[in-house]
Amino acid sequence: MSGAFSYGSAPQDSYAALMLVVTTNDIPGWEIQRVCGEVFGLTVRSRNAFSQMGAGFKSMFGGELQGMTKNLAESRNEAMNRLMNEARNRGGNAIIGMRFDTTELGDVWTEICAYGTAVQAVPVSDAAKYTAQQLGYGVS
Asked: Which residues, 6 or more positions from 79, have their beta carbon under 8 angstroms from its beta carbon?
């Protein structure tokens, strides 16, 4: 199972507010009361030719490609923020079955898609109620 996510550097009162996002098809201790539908967050990024060339040289000698890693992390965060925003717009307070997919578009673009199912979930166990409280779901 994944967990509660807040992505990127967006303010807490916008899209980066905490939301329960899991890779499983259910949430232990929670009752799914409504399925709001499939949701996705998408971003397409172009590659910097100079960065690509530098990464090519670096890959010959080994080691992490820090610029590429940073770009990928930022892209995934952007896709996740869009995913959570779409889930909220559909009335969901959680996302189940979350996955990432990437596609190369030509030689210079990369599409990153985060997708899952938006649901309305209610905590029923004490542990889930604690998690909900930590997320600010207003459970007493």
From this structure: 41, 42, 43, 100, 112, 113, 114
Q: Is the Cα torsion angle 68, 4, 96, 89 positive or negative in sign?
A: negative
Nearest CA among 89, 73, 86 for reference residue 9: 73
The answer to whether 136 and 18 are in contact (CB under 8 A) is yes
Q: Please state, in angstroms and rounded to a whole number, the distance separating the CA atoms of residues 27 and 135.
A: 15
Q: How many angstroms separate the CA atoms of 140 and 74, rounded?
A: 35
Quote the pTM value. Answer: 0.77
Residue pair 110/104 in contact (Cβ under 8 Å)? The answer is yes
CB 114 within 8 A of CB 41: yes
Render pLDDT for 16-74 as a digit per residue (tens, 0 to 9): 457 999 999 999 999 999 999 999 999 998 765 555 555 555 566 667 667 777 888 88
What confidence tens digit (pLDDT) does each residue in 115-139 have? 999 999 999 999 999 999 888 886 5
